[in-house]
Amino acid sequence: MNIIKSQNTILSTSNIIQKSLYSTQSKAVEKIRDRLANGPSFEDFVTKSTTEINGEWKNYDGKLRRDKGENTRLRLPPWLKTTIPTGKNFHKIKEQLRGLKLSTVCEEARCPNIGECWGGGEHGTATATIMLMGDTCTRGCRFCSVKTSRAPPPLDVNEPVNTAEAIASWGLNYIVLTSVDRDDIPDGGASHISETVKTIKKLNNSILVECLVPDFGGNVDSVKLIANCGLDVYAHNIETVEELTPFVRDRRAKYRQSLAMLKAAKEENPNLITKSSIMLGLGESDEEVLQTLKDLKEAGVECVTLGQYMQPTKRHLKVIEYVTPEKFKHWEDMGTELGFLYTASGPLVRSSYKAGEFFITSILKNRRSSV
Length: 371
Prior knowledge:
It is a single chain. With 371 residues, this protein is an alpha/beta fold. Helices cover 40% and strands 11% of the residues. It has 14 helices and ten strands. The protein has helices at residues 13-20, 26-36, 50-59, 88-99, 105-108, 114-119, 159-170, 190-203, 220-227, 245-248, 255-268, 286-298, 325-338, 354-370; strands at residues 103-104, 130-132, 136-137, 147-148, 174-179, 208-212, 233-235, 273-280, 303-308, 342-345. Strands 1-2-5-6-7-8-9-10 form an eight-stranded mixed β-sheet, sandwiched between helices. A two-stranded parallel sheet has the order 3-4.
């Protein structure tokens, strides 16, 4: 499971709750605040302190943005340099995943936080995100290091059961499932994902399940199948602003199509929490980022994350700009102002991470208790 840790300066969970939830939900806000009063804050999930990050930023004299036509790679700024902890939890999860022939987006996408999540970090919670339907995608987005092929291997019929059993053995209360794109399958793999969620819930009905799914080529029936399979959080990443989408994502991945899929999921099952993510540092303007946030809000998305794009290999898109912690804080505040339930914005924030899932868990439990 991928519960990737924010490495930037962000507000405490209680402050996020206080500023993010709608004013009409004041009673619900108080309930959540009381529940989290003795729980960890967002800073508890951060390895570096605010003072250390700000101090390094003030002393940093490197270049943060490439000039037009420049081909050299930017030097990594201090706030993106992380320590990779390992240990017994890291190796235990790796061995178990290999034994069950399960793939993780942590490895395939070369996530910079893999050591922290798999190793458990200082909080001891070892997690990983399961990537369903194999490790080979039918698409070739220019930012992604996952393997690609027009004809990936057939689906593993045992994967839903293997995944559910692995998750049950970890004893977690929140799990994230993602997947490659499978345009070679009529429903894009929606039935396979749905069966996995149902099997997980059958073994442990109390576990909360988030699915980070493809756009299914615009197939609304596939979206509806996932929306009604028993999951709690429907996530699909918009990835970048509309103007850059044709240059960043595979030609079959369209900006408006992604918005339509997110909207369809929420309309099909209003009880779902819908979620999306934006990468920064690809050359987008502030106006384009703001418009993307507004488009997501209009599509019914409730939770949004913004993180720094990191070039996985020399063959992929170069980083145009390393966005500062202050700018990420600006987008977090903007997300709150626009009315998202939850906005996580920071250099090392990814689609899912520990603090974010802690917050979403609180929202879901509050909703259930009020029914």
